[in-house]
């Protein structure tokens, strides 16, 4: 059973919120974010307004996977993380 658009968005927001709150995360979370964003970007029903935000989130997660220190990477994106969640709430 595949996840609906709404479920994908909620999981994505949950992971980003946890990164923002906890200031830490795992490579597997970044990989999951990458998969979720790819799936959402392939969905033709999503708003064009959210696509640039999803691209930024994809870049964040992609770079996080290979970051020498993932927690430092996450800390460097604290403002972005909360903004992305706010943007997703606005467009979904």
Task: Provide structural commentary.
- The protein has one domain (about 5-90).
- The model has no long low-confidence stretch (mean pLDDT about 95).
- It is about 75% helix and about 0% strand.
- By secondary structure, it is an all-alpha fold.
Features:
mainly alpha, globular, 75% helix, 92 residues
Counting H and I runs of at least 4 residues, what is the number of helices? 5
Tell me the overall shape: globular
- Average pLDDT confidence is 94
| Rg computed from alpha carbons, rounded to a whole number of angstroms | 12 Å
> Looking at the chains present, what oligomeric state does this protein adopt?
single chain
Low-confidence stretches: none
| SSE ordering | HHHHH
Structural class estimated from helices and strands: mainly alpha
Gap between N and C termini: 22 Å
Protein name: YtzH-like protein
Organism: Falsibacillus pallidus
Pfam family, one: YtzH
InterPro entries: YtzH
Please describe the topology of this protein.
Blueprint: H1 5-22, H2 27-42, H3 51-65, H4 70-75, H5 78-91
Helix pairs in contact: 1-2, 1-5, 2-3
What's the short story on this structure?
The chain is an all-alpha fold and 92 residues long. 75% of the residues lie in helices and 0% in strands.
């Amino acid at each position: 059973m595949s996840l609906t658009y709404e479920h994908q968005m909620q999981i994505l927001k949950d992971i980003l919120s946890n990164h923002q709150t906890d200031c830490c995360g795992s490579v597997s979370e970044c990989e999951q974010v990458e998969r979720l964003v790819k799936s959402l970007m392939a969905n033709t029903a999503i708003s064009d307004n959210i696509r640039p935000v999803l691209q930024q989130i994809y870049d964040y997660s992609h770079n996080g996977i290979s970051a020498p220190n993932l927690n430092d990477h996450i800390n460097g994106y604290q403002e972005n993380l909360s903004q992305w969640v706010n943007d997703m709430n606005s467009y979904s």
